[in-house]
Specification:
about 375 residues; alpha+beta; 11 strands; about 55% helix; about 20% strand; Lipoprotein-release_system; membrane; ABC3_permease_C; transmembrane
Length: about 375
């Protein structure tokens, strides 16, 4: 083992430029793959956090004409009756400002509604409205302005702009507004449809919903309403990982090419070692160790580069156009599980690519070469 390790290190040092390029190729491939996965993780996590700033963790729809009381639950930190409707928002023209018009989803919240979205800083009052930041800009409205909401029933309600909120999810910021429950009831002729609930752990919304619903409510967790999006993001991560993994595969072929050249170059030495008593296993172990050393070195280098690049982008996140993407910036979330999986898969690719030169070295016939 020591003899094989000595020869493997000697072969790697013999061609430092080629060995360094092979190691760098694996390292860059691993780093790019880790960075791509970290950016995808950050995108998904940032989207979920931004969405849940203004989206209920759990909705319990009432199955009875009258809204029944909601049973308490230890994981529910806030709850409030609600009703939601679509409406056309208009702002009349004023001197120096033209009119504004846009569609929006009005979410009417009853008592305790402000606690559902603590990050938005809502302070609802009768006849008041909080607009998403992009919606506010689309209407050209300012805090204190009077706007009008028109429903499909041709009912019209006058509202005063109390402020705006920004989640970072453009789809919400451009299409959602919060009002008091009575304003929605007057606009759409609705009664409270159920309860919105905020949980300690939003990922447990399905379990908590099933426990709270009973026979009087129909539970709807945020994962259900956002299921298509979450599935698309998960598929995107898998496809992106496979595509970027091809970079590692190409780098692994570079390692294989280097080892094949070494086998060809060292064929007389291999024959001489075999003639002096070295076994096939010893000769094969030399080239196997070369592949392991280059693979391990490339994986370690890639992990270091990927981690440093992730830290850099975490401090200086990439900006995204809100009109095209869900987020206004791209966060980074590095997960140890990704590092382990990428390291194992990359090392496996290098070892598999090393089988060809290993088999070539094992097929060397000392008698034929030395003759």
């Amino acid at each position: 083992m020591r003899f094989a390790l000595f020869l493997a290190l000697a072969h790697i040092r013999r061609r430092p430029l080629q060995s360094g390029l092979a190691l760098l190729g694996v390292g860059v491939g691993v780093a790019v793959l880790l960075l791509a996965l970290s950016l995808t993780n950050g995108f998904v996590d940032g989207l979920v956090r931004a969405t849940l700033k203004a989206y209920p963790h759990l909705v319990l729809f009432s199955l009875t004409p009258e809204l029944p009381p909601l049973p308490p639950h230890p994981e529910a930190v806030a709850q409030a009756p609600f009703a939601a409707t679509k409406a056309l928002l208009t702002r009349p023209a004023e001197p120096g400002r033209g009119p504004g018009v846009d569609f929006a989803t009005l979410v009417g919240l009853g008592e305790g509604g402000e606690a559902l979205y603590p990050e938005l800083g809502l302070k609802l009052e009768p006849g008041g409205i909080y607009l998403g930041s992009a919606l506010l800009q689309s209407l050209g409205a300012l805090p204190g302005d009077r706007i009008y909401a028109l429903s499909a029933l041709q009912e019209r309600v006058e509202l005063r702009v109390l402020g705006s909120f920004r989640t970072g999810n453009y789809l919400i910021d451009s299409a959602y507004a919060f009002v008091d429950l009575k304003s929605v009831e007057a606009l759409a002729g609705l009664k409270a449809q159920g309860y919105q609930v905020r949980l300690q752990d939003p990922w447990r919304a399905k379990e908590v919903g099933a426990e709270m619903a009973g026979a009087r409510f129909y539970p709807q967790a945020w994962q259900d309403t956002q299921r298509t999006l979450l599935e698309q993001l998960a598929l995107q991560k898998r496809v992106l990982g496979i595509l970027v993994y091809l970079i590692v595969a190409v780098a692994a072929l570079g390692v294989a090419n280097l080892l094949v050249l070494k086998v060809v170059e060292k064929t007389p030495e291999i024959a001489l070692l075999r003639a002096m008593g070295a076994s096939r296993a010893t000769v094969g172990l030399v080239f196997a160790l070369e592949g392991v050393l280059l693979g391990l070195g490339g994986v370690l280098l890639g992990n270091g580069l990927g981690y440093l690049l992730g830290l850099y982008l975490a401090q200086r996140p990439l900006d995204l156009p809100g009109e095209l993407y869900f987020l206004t910036h791209l966060p980074v979330k590095m997960e140890g599980r990704d590092f382990l999986l990428v390291s194992a898969a990359s090392l496996g690719a290098v070892l598999l690519s090393s089988l060809l030169p290993l088999l070539r070295a094992l097929r060397v016939q000392p008698g034929v070469v030395l003759r």
